[in-house]
Amino acid sequence: MTIRRAVVTGTGSALPRTRVSNADLAARVDTSDEWIVERTGIRFRHIAEADETTSTLATAAARTALAAAGRVPADIDLIVLATATPDQTFPASATLVQAALGIDDCVAFDVAAVCSGFLYALQVADSMIRASAATRALVIGSETFSRILDWEDRATCVLFGDGAGAIVLEADEGDGTRGVLATRLHADGRHNQLLYVDGGPSTTGTVGKLRMKGREVFRHAVTNLAAVMSEALDAAGMAADRVDWVVPHQANARILDATARKLGLAPEKVVVTVDQHANTSAASVPLALDAAIRDGRIRPGHLIVLEAMGGGFTWGASVVQL
Ligand code: UT7
Fold first, then answer.
1. Is residue 249 among the annotated active site residues?
2. What pLDDT is recorded for position 201?
3. How many angstroms separate the alpha carbon of residue 241 from the centre of ligand 1?
4. CA nearest neighbour of 91 among 115, 108, 113, 74
5. Which of 124, 251, 257, 264 has the fewest other C-beta atoms within 10 Å?
6. Nearest protein Cα to ligand 1, atom 20
7. What pLDDT was estimated at residue 67?
């Protein structure tokens, strides 16, 4: 008997042209390279120029992922784009990507789950593929958080960056050992005032700025991420020692270390890009995945765990056999 699963056949990413160092930021707000590196592990972030938007970055990442998968845009019948910073309130940025890629007809929509958005998008695309509602999907995380940062608030503006990551996810009828093996998602709206944007179309009529109680978010992140990773591994029938790589949401190097320690995973198995990209919200997991595939760390046959946590709170983990 064959099992229909969604397998990852290609990855891609895109970063804005301009790279900003901690020293550059220290010239703008009362901070220092030393504080940022010690508290977060962040050294650089990329910041979008006026002509770089969530959809242009997403389109560039999608093109690279399609090339890696050996596919052309016309092969795609589903685009799920995770973002909290769409080009416009509507239409969905996924349809802007669709148009830019020249795809005449497909299903295209955005998913809003902030930093966990890519995990949510992956679960949606995986479910649609397994239900035969789609065959070949682009799953994208893309953000321009620089547009919603309060550049006077040193406690938040040093933490985030812009970028996009994408994967091609394809239906595969086989023995069921490859592909997305299990995903687990959660949300707890009681905490929606710990990390939020203070504006929106239906309240202020403005875009708003990001606000965060960092220390409280940190505390929840480690507990929730370790728990959901265990849950997803259990659902996949995999022990933690089978994992080749963890590809975490890149919010803070200390969260990555603490979460790995809680699960008994060696830090060498954790992909870290937060030093180069900072926190790119929904883009961070696919950006890190693409970086580790392109530099040869993650290879075909590896068992990987993707995980993320963000505003809402929302959080999730996915176990994928490449
Ligand atoms: O993507 C969604 C998930 N987001 C996260 O996971 C973020 C989680 N939180 C964090 O990563 C950390 O809490 C932060 C990096 C945001 C902050 O680190 P912290 O160790 O929790 O520092 P803190 O907020 O408690 O601030 C400590 C001190 C404060 O000064 P006082 O009150 O002790 O005098 C801050 O005012 O550091 C000060 N501070 C800064 N100093 C220099 C805050 N931001 C800065 C800054 N530069 N940029």
1. yes
2. 97
3. 33
4. 108
5. 264
6. 39
7. 98
User: CA-to-CA distance for 67 and 193, rounded, in angstroms?
Assistant: 41
CB of 39 closer than 8 Å to CB of 29: no
User: What pLDDT, on the 0 to 100 scale, is given for residue 263?
Assistant: 86
Centre of ligand 1 to C-alpha 114, Å, is 20
pLDDT value for 1: 85
pLDDT tens-place string over residues 302-314: 999 999 999 999 9
Q: Which domains does the chain have, with CATH numbers?
A: 3-174 (3.40.47.10), 179-321 (3.40.47.10)
pLDDT lower than 50: segments of the chain: none
Residue 197 φ/ψ, nearest 5 degrees: -115, 135
CA atoms within 13 A on the CB side of 137: 31
**Alpha-carbon gap, residue 81 to 93, rounded angstroms:** 7
Which atom number of ligand 1 is nearest to the Cα of residue 252? 11
CB within 8 A of 208, min separation 6: which ones?
148, 197, 198, 199, 200
For ligand 1, what atom is nearest to the CA of residue 115?
Answer: 1
Largest CA distance in the chain: 63
The pocket around ligand 1, CB under 6 angstroms, is made up of 31, 35, 39-40, 115, 154-155, 158-159, 214-215, 217-218, 221, 251-252, 255, 279, 309-310
> How many angstroms is it from 158 CA to the middle of ligand 1?
10
Ligand 1 center–CA 222 separation, angstroms: 16
The helix (run of H) or strand (run of E) holding residue 154 is: helix 154-157
Question: Model-level pTM?
Answer: 0.98
**What pLDDT shows up at residue 319?**
98
10, 13, 9: which is closest to 165 by C-alpha? 13
